[in-house]
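hey
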């Protein structure tokens, strides 16, 4: 069942050359982001920093994705970004989140067709906690990103736990 042994008539069982390590890495590479993505928490650019902090805690997430009025990704904000602004003497009730967010194109994204391995690699290489899963749309000669999900360190950890149950 693991593909480690194969069988042939009149030959019997023989070693396929696949080791369990290759099996796990193969499984992670086969799974697509679309199969493991989670539901993102999306707020608008004009949301106040205070309301963003409330949304962060009410939804128990570490990253909020910011959309433009047309619903396309314009940036994101993490717990660390919010902590930095709160420690200053800024009125967080009046300051819009669009002022402090990380803007596109500085946001690392992943598409539904990419592998779970590629998503995990992006999380590690760029040292981020979450990636927006986006559908790339070409409109008026511009590339826009529609937010359809998220992949986080927790998402990848849950995947490893599920694969370990086999």
């Amino acid at each position: 069942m693991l593909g480690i042994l194969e069988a042939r008539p009149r030959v019997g069982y023989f070693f396929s050359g696949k080791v369990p390590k290759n099996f796990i890495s193969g499984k992670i590479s086969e799974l697509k982001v679309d199969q493991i993505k989670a539901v993102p928490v999306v707020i608008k650019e004009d949301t106040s920093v205070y309301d963003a902090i409330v949304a962060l805690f009410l939804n128990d997430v570490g990253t909020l994705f910011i959309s433009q009025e047309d619903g396309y990704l314009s940036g994101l904000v993490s717990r660390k970004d919010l902590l930095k602004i709160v420690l200053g003497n800024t009125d967080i009730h009046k300051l819009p989140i669009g002022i402090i967010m990380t803007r596109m194109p500085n946001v690392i994204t992943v598409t539904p067709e990419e592998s779970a391995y590629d998503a995990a690699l992006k999380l590690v290489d760029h040292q981020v906690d979450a990636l927006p899963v986006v559908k790339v749309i070409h409109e008026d000669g511009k590339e826009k990103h529609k937010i359809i999900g998220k992949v986080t360190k927790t998402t990848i950890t849950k995947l490893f736990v599920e694969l370990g149950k086999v």
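The two ends are 10 Å apart (CA to CA). Residues 153-164 form the longest helix (12 residues).
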